[in-house]
Amino acid sequence: MSLTIRRMTVEDVPAAHEIDVSSFTLPWPERSLRFEVTDNPAARCWAAELDGRLVGMLVLWMIVDEAHIATVATHPGYRRQALHHNYWSKP
Fold this sequence. Notes:
By secondary structure, this protein is an alpha+beta fold. The chain is built from two helices and five strands; from the N terminus they run βααββββ. The two termini are 21 Å apart. The C terminus is likely disordered.
């Protein structure tokens, strides 16, 4: 298995939203995740991909010199498996 941590793309938004829905009772609307990826200059959105499937996501906001975690989630089928990434891909 090959786990990659990379920047989230707009193509990842539907899968990230599915992970959010399966993780929280009050998930973000899909349009909000899309905004974070495409239009929020303070947002840093990351995707965890395992063998071509999105299995986790992170949205954080860089505010001045601090990082604020807005949301972070792992697909329920991949939790508690001690997965380790092989590398950080380039943006």
